[in-house]
Amino acid sequence: MELFVFVCAAVMVIVGALGVVVRGNPVHAALSLVLTLFGIAVLFVAQHAEFLAAVQVIVYAGAIVVLFLFVVMLLGVDRAEDLRTDSLAGQRPLAVVVGLGLLGVLVAAIVSGTDAVITRGTGVNGATTDSPDSNIVQLARSVFADYVVAFEVTSVLLVVAVVGTVLLSRRRAADVRPEGSRPS
Amino acid sequence: MIALVVQPTPMWYLLLSAVLFVIGTVGVLVRRNPLVMFMCIELMLNAVNLTFVTLGRQLNDISGQTIVFFVLVVAAAEVVVGLAIIVAIMRRRTGVNADDLAELKG
Amino acid sequence: MANLLWLAPAFPLLGAVIMLLLGRRLGDPRSGWLATLMPTASFIVIVGVFADLLSRPASERQHVVNLFAWIPVGSLQVDMAILADPLSITMALFVTGIGSLIHLYAIGYMHGDPKFSKFFLYLNLFIFSMLMLVLGENLLVTFLGWEGVGACSYLLISFWHTRNSAAVAGKKAFVTNRVGDFGVMIAMFLAFSALGSLSYSSINEAAHGGTLAPVTATAFALLLFLGACGKSAQLPLYFWLPDAMEGPTPVSALIHAATMVTAGVFLMIRIAPVLAMSYHWASTIIAFVGGLTALCAASVAVTQNDIKKVLAYSTVSQLGYMFMAIGSGAYVAAIFLMITHAFFKALLFLGSGSVIHGMNHEQDMRRMGKLRLVMPITAGTFIIGWLTIAGVPPFSGFWSKDEILLYVYANNRGLYAIGLFTALLTAYYMTRQVIMVFFGEAHWNDHSNEHGAHGDFIPHESPRIMLIPLVVLAGLSALGGALQLPFNTDLHFLGRWLAPVLEESEAMHFGTQEYQNRYLLLGIAGVVALVGIGIAVAVYAKRVIKPIEPRLLEQAWYYDAAVSRVVSGPGATAFNSISWVDTHIVDGAVNGVATLVRNSAGVTRKAQSGFVRTYAAVIGLGAVLLIAWFAWRSIA
Amino acid sequence: MNSEPIPFVGPSIQWFEISPMLALLAGALLLLLGGALTPQWPRGWYAAVSCVTAGTAGVLSFFLWGDVVNGQPTTLVGGAIAFDRFALFSTITICGSLVLVSLITNDHLHREGQDAPEVYGLYLIAAIGGIIMVSANDLVVLFLGLETLSLSLYVLAASNRRRGESEEAGLKYFILGGFSSAFFLYGVALVFGSVGTTNLGRIAEVLANEQTIPGNDALLLVGIALLLVGFAFKVALVPFQMWTPDVYQGAPTPVTAYLASIGKVAALAALIRVFVVAFPSRMDDWRPAITVLAVLTLLIGSVLAVVQTNVKRMLAYSSISHAGFMLVGLEAASHRDSLELNTGVSASLTYLMLYSIIVIGTFGVVSLVAGVGDSATSLDDMRGLSKRRPVLALGLTVLLLAQAGVPLTSGFVAKFGVIQSAVNSGSYVLALVAMVSAVIAAFLYLRIMVSMWLSAPANESPLKIPIASGLAIAFAVVVTLVVGFVPGRLLDAVRDLGQFVS
Amino acid sequence: MIAFPILTMLVVLPALGALVVSLISHSRLEWVKLAALVTSVATGAMSVWMLVKFPSGSAGFEFVSKHSWISQWGISWHLGVDGISLFLVVLTGVLFPLVIAGIDVHHDQKPYLAWLLLLEAGVMGSFLSLDLFLFFVFFEIVLVPMYFLIGGWGYERRVYAATKFFLYTMAGSAFMLVGIIATAVLARRDIGELTFNVIDIAEKANFSTTTGRWLFVAFAIAFAVKVPLFPLHTWLPDAHTEAPTGGSVILAAVLLKMGTYGLLRFGIYLFPEASVWARPVMYTLAVIGILYGAIAATMQRDLKRLVAYSSIAHLGFIVLGVFALTHQSISGGVIQMVNHGVSTGALFLLVGMIYERRHTRQIDELRGLQHVAPIFAGFFMVVMLSSIGLPGLNGFVGEFLILIGSFDTARWWVVVATTGVILAALYLLWAYQRVFHGEPDEANSSFREVSMREGLLLSVFVAIIVFTGIYPKPILDRIEPSVKALLEHVEQRTTYRQPQVIGEATK
Fold this sequence. Notes:
The structure holds five protein chains of five kinds. By secondary structure, chain D is mainly α.
């Protein structure tokens, strides 16, 4: 059963990812991204990370991709980019080399190393599967106990996002304002 | 049938995420549209997320998922900032792609 | 009295200092007189010391005056010390004596020269250096004087430096001498490393005592001989001396005839014991070098037309004679000739100077002739000098030359032949000169328009102040033979006087078969001289024989030319190539590194293309490599 | 829900120990809210607030320093944050640099007429991120701190909207930064997977307690590699340095100063901590990598610097080769010997501190010369500075000589320490390479000096030094010289920086 | 050790002077000059006073002043002077006032003087410091003022020359820094604590053969650049030629000596075994330098360049003497350092004067100067003869001692080196002939005779030249004991023994 789920999800993920890379039109790319994200979400569920799956769908598919699309529309850059050739000489071969190399080493490492994970992994924290609490409760405990600092930092992170956007999207008038005079 | 006997081991998930990661990497290298490059980065992040969840499950450790939770936030924040920057540039010169931004070099 | 020896060099030095400070203020004749006073004073001092030494028994005729420690480092203790012994005093005597005369002469000769006082400054400095040379108690003090006289001769040769030839000649003299000095310096190092001392006493004692290995002794002697070749203008380093005639004539007389050039001879005699210690072939080499030099120089003198050039070459050949003597162990004889030569050669030079002076600085003998009428005294004295050098009895030259020939005969017949032939040539070319200058018909006005004197120009006799030295020197050269007459040993005044220094090293010949038939040799020598004169007369006066003056000889066997060809040809090329290497290869490498850095930077920065995707690619590549390394580590 | 929920007990939070961050946060919020709600403040107030905040944080960390020196290093908030000399020293460095940067920023923003609270707010927040990085005892926290810092810097780099370069720099920095942090995150994931925890101390324990079976380490080591990639990017180690020149040149000059000082401090300190604390058992694996990176960084950094014509770019490259020097210290620390570890870590961190001060001063001068529009940054624009404003030229000369490592400047003290640690642990070759690259780099400082002193002025207009920048530069110069002459105090302080909590 | 920290003052005073000078306002240039003069003269006076007070016959370090500086690294402000450094210090102290008083620059006098004083402080420091770190500090610091002196007040290619000088020397000292640190670190095992104290290291530390040699090499490279030793010499002609007169004088007179001094003080003293081992190489390089420098000098068209190359030759002699490791040779080397400083310094001074008057240094543009300026020519002649090594002048004493001392340990090298004496005469006399002899053309006929000030300045040099040549004993007496001690130090630690003169008995 899980096999079936995995295969379907994997297909979704890969297809979507490839779509992002090869679809010339940003809008299409964004949509294929959604596909991947769904696939990931499915895989989360398959691994008992229901809450994450939900968040994945809401945050990513719901918010982020929409944001992407919004920008695409806003800026009107939905012209398809010509992917048959690459203006940078040698970029494609380089990309291939990097891709294959990376794939090679990662696969090699994973294949030779996963068992070690099993030998090592003796549930450091509370168990995932055979725990009385539901996934979300465990998550909450973890977030607010072990990772409370991280959690706080994320809040700072969001502040950065907000402030940054504000700073960057200032009226351009501000830039031509002569020195000394007060901003609008 | 086979589907019932063969269980996907964690390694499968890990390999899948590795592949996803590589696709994302290649995407960054080959795409010219900053937005799409950015999407590819998101792909990479998702690959990592998948890895986290898988390993967390493998280790009977919830923190795998917790970390993913944070990564989501990071991704969101990154998107906001990134899009802000891109918008700022695109406003100035519409339809610019990554290769057009090469004034600084040497 | 001997303790006051230090005054001898002190006076000229003082004179030099005075000249330096207020020479100009003293002005034309006065500074000259002052300068003349100084060597005279030292002459008196030397005479005093001489008397002092005479008054002592022969064995104690040696006195060291230690002025101060000069270069004392560890085992090397060199003192600024001067030594009074028969040899040094003999040298000092004629150096100061003739020196004074020439100073006197120069007052007249240099009269009116803008740099009058500077000239005498140099002369005094020279006398000082020369005295240090001969009086030095150790090699280093001698070397001090040795280099000092070199420098002075450089200054004096290029005294009229606005003449390019003079400037070049001066430089040539100095550099050539330096080649010799190389030998002297190495010799000093050798002496120190072998004996730990540079003082003549310890060196010669070691030679006597046999603590000096023959091989060391030989090396030492030959190295010093190299130095001597430089100073005393022997082959292969003789070629600077003829050019040195660019200097004012008094200089030629004093430095390049009477004193400095004999320094080499003196040095060899100084270390005579070492020479005696060394292998026999060393002496042979010296003798033959001397002989060949004598011959070549004489042969060249035959064809020269410059009145001073003739004398210069004759000087070289006479010096050759002296070395021939040294090589044959005839040290006393060498000194004998040195002294007489000092007399007559100074006389001849001063005479020629007087002629030149009278002819308004004309030096070409072909434009002279018949001068005996206008300048009788000069002519008379010059003729005496001529007879002396030609070896006509009973003038001193005859005796001195004869004694050398005696030893040479005993030593090596071939050399004897060379010596005789040289004597013949000497007589010949000197006669030629006398005839061309003082006899025959006058060519004073032949194309004399070239230089100031136009119309019918009459040469004039020189002022008295120049003639006095001539007369004195004429007397000395005539009678100088009395120092050492061969007839019996009682007449060997010089020999006996020098005995304390030299008797061990002298090659004694009394009683030998050669000594027996010395009168025969005397006869031969005299005859040869007369023959030479006869031929010359026949050629130049009577014109019965056509003169033979081959170009080869006129150009001095092309030796000088060859040397300068080599120096300016391959030598210059080699030097140039080295400095090319310096700029282009050694420094080129340095700048090359800089360029390398720049270029490699230029290449590397190409990667910094500004395209963000390239950057990403490079990052990816780097990542792959890093991961690969770590992955490999994990497997290995 | 089949059973009673287990009662929740959160970790105890040591408020005083984390007060520096809190102070910065407070300052940031004050600026942002205040700035947003009130009309434009008078000139210099934003900067003042930022300086005061940073200063306060610095002072607080000074107090904490005392505690650490007297007590034992501990961890805070459930082991997430380390509380040791290393962390505090870096914190102090960051706060100090922040003060200086704020000072030069003030004048810059006024020249540009862009004075805004957000900039300072981002400065402060980024600083928080930096502090978190240097004191994080947990990879996840570290990652979040890193993101906080980076995101702020992306924005700041792009913040000068008048200059296209600024935006370009921002975008390049952002894309590459995101790219590299993905690698970093993957590394975190793999390490987490293969060790079972993200807490540095625990990682060390786990790894120390089990002997390695060949092949077993694959995930771990690849994880380390990926972490290294992420760090290398932030620290700008060759070949991950390519963004540096562009961003340094494009970003507003004060921001460049920020990048070169606080950015480097945070990233490199974090790198050192992670590798020395968490992976000492794998030293033999990562030391060679560090060595190679160091050599590449040293040489390529200084070589490329030689041919530049833009001062900011030159300094960017020189900062790269300086990073190489700091790595030499890390390499020295990676030999199994507590003493060497100590000297190495101390040397690197000292270098970081002194370099940040020098570099801020340098960029302070550069930004003054750059003038309105922040554009006059080519080498020719430096010409005749000695005529236009001798004092400034002299100050810059001191700072440049310090970067070249001339004795009696702090730069020499820094280099000396690093080289000494390298020699201590017997890596002579690396020491030599470092010195050689220093010589190559010296050429570029000479070039700047030549154009300052020995060439005719490009424009004669005398340069006026605003108070704020003047203060910052003066401070930098003074510190450079004082430390150069009497480094004793500093050296006492940094003696045991290598005593990490674990 | 005396109460008054004279050595510290020697270093600090010029530095203070530099500070004062740079603080005086531009409007008061004459004050600037005055201040510079006062400080330098005071320094010079102190150095001379120290010379007077220096106990002749003492082998150890005198006037030592030692204060902990960077205790964490075992570094201390440790100054001391012995026979080897004594005269270099005095030379420095005497030379700078002369240069400041005697030579004016035409623009920016204030910074010029400031840099000059700073340079003096640096040079003093490097000759006095007995702490490796301290030495390195001064050794490096010297570069900065020199760089600005060349670059700021030099001639056409000044920037190139200055940069080359700076980088070349810095490259050398890069090795030395590593060497210094390694020395201290490795010596820690023997000494027990980390210290950069030269004496402690030299006396207590015993490095393994290989280590010692490596360290020696590290030091030697730096010093070889400074000396300069073939083939690391090419910075010197450029630097000398492009530097302003004062700069060249200082450069030739004292800066180069930092190299040979370093070889002696740090090379041989710290690593006796290695220096004994390295002798053949050093001999060879030195001899090559002698001939090569002389030959290159012969071919120069630029008078200043010629002098520069002659320096290479002369320093070759010094290195030869230093490594010949005999009593005479090393003493000769030390005294030759001073002599070369005086005579070559004077030569650069004279060449500078020629340039002042004729605005060219090209030999073939100069003719017959002796005719128009006999006194000037006279000065030149004396200095030249001293440089040629005429007995009775200072140049000879050093050369002679070096050669005679080295003859036993480096016989054939000496034989070759002695030919350098011939070449010296060749290139200098040739140049002299071309420049001073002959009939002056109209460009040269207006050549100005020496002024009063120049005359005084030059007479000082000539006086030193003559005195040292005639009566070097007082100098040698002060040098000798330290050299003796050094050689004993070497003989204690190595199998090397000084050659014993056979004929000692007969003497």
